[in-house]
Design goal:
Helix content is 49%, strand content 6%. With 221 residues, it is mostly helical. It has 2 domains: 70 residues, 3-Layer(aba) Sandwich (Glutaredoxin); 112 residues, Glutathione S-transferase Yfyf (Class Pi), Chain A, domain 2 (Up-down Bundle). The chain has a 4-stranded mixed β-sheet. The longest helix has 28 residues. The N and C termini lie far apart (47 Å). The structure holds glutathione. Glutathione binds next to helix 4.
């Protein structure tokens, strides 16, 4: 199998954490694909986005929730996404929440870096800040159930990937103060090899990105 990936994408990181946690990582050929490379990505994914998984029979799979659900059928450990029942829907919903957090963080960043700055919409940024703060609070509620002796399922993997992106891009956002359960859980999860081995980094040979034109805010009281 071949995974089209990148150095910083939280969705790619989610897939990679999933691969490590299920013991499937060794069987993967990782290919760093620039989404702007129309010739490689567009024929495989009409949306031109990564992550993109080419399965052993050459089938292209996207997006990250679909890839993870597929990968969960390939290993013989306990499922990270239970196939049925309330836990299935709870975990899928938390994945959607975590992915939405990453979406808001990503959209906000692109908007805050808009050039020329006169085109930047502060309203749009404010709306993403609201989504970021509310999503983090909702994940804090979820994290209250994630004890150190419980299993690490896909809800935690998706949350770790999104939170890793928040920490990478918005290191000054004071979320830990408002989300103590999430913060304590993240401290634990951050020590897992699946997390440390998949840290985002600036692409080789590319300069560090410019600082945010508009610093992120915790918008709730
Ligand atoms: N919902 C998608 C989101 C994927 C996504 O937005 N990927 C970004 C990288 S972080 C991308 O490829 N963007 C390139 C583009 O939109 O042209 C998933 O979960 O896989």
């Amino acid at each position: 199998m071949r995974l089209h990936s990148s150095y910083t994408s939280p969705y790619v990181r989610k897939v990679k954490i999933f691969l490590v946690e299920t013991g499937l990582f060794e069987g993967i050929e990782e290919m760093f694909t620039n989404p702007a490379d129309e010739a490689v990505l567009r024929p495989l994914n009409p949306l031109g986005k990564i992550p993109l998984l080419e399965t052993d029979d050459g089938t292209p799979l996207f997006d990250s929730p679909v890839i993870c659900a597929y990968l969960d059928t390939l290993h013989d450990r306990p499922r990270l996404i239970p196939a049925t029942g309330a836990d299935h829907w709870r975990i899928r919903r938390t994945e959607a929440l975590a992915d939405g957090l990453a979406d808001a963080a990503n959209l906000r960043r692109n908007e805050a870096l808009r050039d020329p700055r006169s085109l930047m919409s502060q309203d749009f940024i404010d709306r993403q800040d609201l989504a970021i703060s509310h999503a983090l609070l909702a994940l804090d509620l979820e994290a209250k159930g994630w004890t150190s002796d419980g299993p690490v399922l896909h809800d935690q993997i998706a949350t770790a990937a999104a939170l890793g992106y928040i920490v990478f891009r918005y290191e000054n956002l004071p979320w830990r103060l408002h989300c103590p359960a999430l913060s304590a859980w993240f401290e634990r999860f951050s020590r897992r090899p699946s997390f440390t081995d998949t840290s985002p980094r600036n692409p080789p040979g590319r300069p560090a990105p410019p600082p945010q034109a508009v610093a992120p805010n915790w918008v709730l009281a």
